[in-house]
Known about the structure:
Helix content is 3%, strand content 33%.
Amino acid sequence: xxxxxxxxxxxxxxxxxxxxxxxxxxxxxxxxxxxxxxxxxxxxxxxxxxxxxxxxxxxxxxxxxxxxxxxxxxxxxxxxxxxxxxxxxxxxxxxxxxxxxxxxxxxxxxxxxxxxxxxxxxxxxxxxxxxxxxxxxxxxxxxxxxxxxxxxxxxx
Length: 156
């Protein structure tokens, strides 16, 4: 994996993710990857120029905490179905699983596919002033997203 600043990168292993240059602007994680039990925290704070995060289906099943914070250039987050979920196609209550999206003032779009984060108990979305689209799950479908979570959307 090259460490030169690249506009868009696609990574499918944890070592590739860890070796990414801090200047990348788009990160894509393909479906059915990053499901290693050793990956328990996903933090995007080192990517200062990040504009887009795309995560495919069935990724990061063992991640306990997701932190997307203070990314001033971030405009779009897309997460596929059954990602960040240990027990596929159902809901579960795990008090150790948390999602934090904070201080991303340029974020316009947050799309999370059905059954992702189905066992997370905390979901905090705070200070995302430009948010125009928030789609979590699908209408007219049992989605289980953040099923046992206290869901908060705050401007302060």
